Amino acid sequence: MEEMEIDGASKPKACEQEKEKGKRIVALLVGAPASGKSTFCENVMRASSRPWVRICQDTINNGKSGSKPQCLKSAAASLKEGKSVFIDRCNLVKDQRVDFVKLGGAEVEVHAVVLDLPAKLCISRIAKRTRHEGNLQGGKAAAVVNRMLQNKELPKLSEGFSRITFCRNETDVEAAVNTYTAVGPLDTLPRGCFGQKDPNAKTQLGIMKFLKRPHETDTQDSVPSQPTEEKGPLCKTHETVSSSSGMANQKIKVSEDPVPVSISQDDSDVPTLAFPSISTADFQFNLEKASDIIVQKVEEFMDKLGNARLVLVDLTERSKILSLVRAKAAEKNIDSKKFFTFVGDICQLYTKGGLRCNVIANAANWRLKPGGGGVNAAIFNAAGAALETATMDRAKTLHPGNALVVPLPSTSPLYHKEGVTHVIHVLGPNMNPNRPNCLDNDYIKGCKVLEDAYSSLFKGFLSVANTQVSFPRSSGSISSGPSKLENEISGTKTKSWAPCLQALYNIAMQPEKHNKQVLEATDDIVVINDMYPKAKRHLLVLTRTKGLDCLADVRKEHLHLLKTMHEVGLRWTDKFLGEDASLVFRLGYHSIPSMRQLHLHVISQDLDSKHLKHKKHWNSFTTAFFRDSVDVIEEVDSHGKATILDDNKLLSMELRCHRCRSAHPNIPRLKSHISNCQDPFPAELQKKGRLVPAQTNSGIEPLTTFP
DNA sequence: GTTCTAGAAC
DNA sequence: GTTCTAGAAC
């Protein structure tokens, strides 16, 4: 069909049909390692309507690094298919670029995008990438990056580029991403040099685009105003109620035309947290009590807010919680500039409501996963995969009363459409018996948890508000707070080991269906052998309580259960010790388990098993990551919850013998050591019955049992 | 949770 | 060349 040659050295000929497609683009990324080249490509490709292909020398060879000719060949082939290509390799000197420039022709224009970021930023990113490996990559990386940058030759138009974009900081990069994202299949970009390099440079499109009101942008997904498509109550409620009392709904007109009406120009820079009422929807928390708590907590935080604002949001003006809160806030004379209620969709506050909120709160579930309904589903939906990834990078679970601040990657639609820079997940108390951790109408506990939830939320917001400018400005003097670095997170990986994650849960729920594995079952617990024992004897005591998935979920009401599990575990150690008196046992929980459903490990301290293969296996049983059952019981008894040591460092710590504490370079050497080490266990372990030996040897305190 | 494997470490 | 690990994939 098409006749052009794919040999990189010969320029492709245009044929008539192709003119209709618009010109293809070869965009050479130019930048040091970790300057963000791949991220740039991914960010553009995620949202662009133009067919792009990223040609990455590091992965072109079936995921392995390949050669320049391979890249050239692949680029030519993609161009032939009508696609535009990103050349994702350093391209720091002219010689490395020249062959790619030759791909250009009548129907193919060649661009350079220069990610000329500070060397120290690239180096720190590399260090970050490899830090957990515990080697000295950081130092080496610094030398490599510095040397590469010393020899760099910035591209010039005279090399044959029709357009060069220089990015000197992350704001420039964002702008360039926006610019390239907006180039549709038939569009072209202005020719020339853009960015600070050229004094005659025109202002970059990207920044202007952002500063325009959203309906004016020409991004691919902006559609003509069609109010009939709107789903939320906003389209029915055209004007929010304003009361003449001290506390009012912010007076915003929402017309048929979804053009936002700014409250005032100044407001766009005010750090603003929009939050839904926590726990009052699906979790069925009493509205009166909830509104009291909201107002009380808002009042507490009022004088810490500075110029920041809090906005309680609900979908409908008939919202009971909004009117309750409004009335109570008015009663307390709370400054309505700093705190007000707002009717609208929390995912479209700016585009549909004209309200700028740089931070929004999500009424999350304990797993921090999308789904369910209501606000959680809506926010994850609107924010895209980037939020899910960014969230999972920070935490896997959240327990009631807590909040988790997640900087929103700039790739998220919520970021570029709504100006949301952070999402704060909050989990409140649950009064709905059909949801996990139901408090069974215990409002004493419930109110405490809800108070904690709002405190955590507002604290999280303040930490964000204090460290960043809420919205990009035209001046280019954007303060790049610490959170900016987080935009590096690239995000489409999703984890899908759900089936094995559920295995323990399934057994606990239906032990009768797992006869072969179950050693013992009562109404409260199930005992099984660990499927991959990490010692001669290793079994698990599972709770059968629904919604009790891990140690973080454990509260005082589970104290009796914890004691039962411990007693059952001890009973099994008796049996094993009768068979082999040389064994010593330890009973405890992993701080963050991999598998769902709270389970107590009962594990012999030989730690002699072919299944113990990795550092994290070893460290999960021999560092503070392993929480001794006796300690957990004591902590839950006295503080209502157990200490969770959720620190990846613990699992990647150096390998040390659990008896003599000597360090070993790798698992095989460690194993060979422990097979001979006869040292006594550390004194710490010999206290409080953390160790369970055959009999009470001298020096080891008697077992702790729980009546 | 395990398995697989590239590439680092030796 | 062989051993070992970390990370991806499942």
From TrEMBL:
Keywords tagged on the record: DNA-binding, Metal-binding, Nucleus, Zinc, Zinc-finger
Region annotation (Disordered) ranges: 215-251
Annotated HIT domain residues: 504-612
Protein name: APRATAXIN-like
Pfam families cross-referenced by the UniProt entry: AAA_33, DcpS_C, Macro, zf-C2HE
Localization annotation: Nucleus
Organism: Hibiscus trionum (Flower of an hour)
Record GO biological process: single strand break repair
GO terms, molecular function: adenylylsulfatase activity; DNA 5'-adenosine monophosphate hydrolase activity; double-stranded RNA binding; mismatched DNA binding; single-strand break-containing DNA binding; single-stranded DNA binding; zinc ion binding
GO cellular component entries: nucleus
Domain Macro: 326-540
InterPro entries given in the database record: Histidine_triad_CS (IPR019808), HIT-like (IPR011146), HIT-like_sf (IPR036265), Macro_dom (IPR002589), Macro_dom-like (IPR043472), P-loop_NTPase (IPR027417), Znf-C2HE (IPR032566)
Biased composition (Basic and acidic residues): 228-239
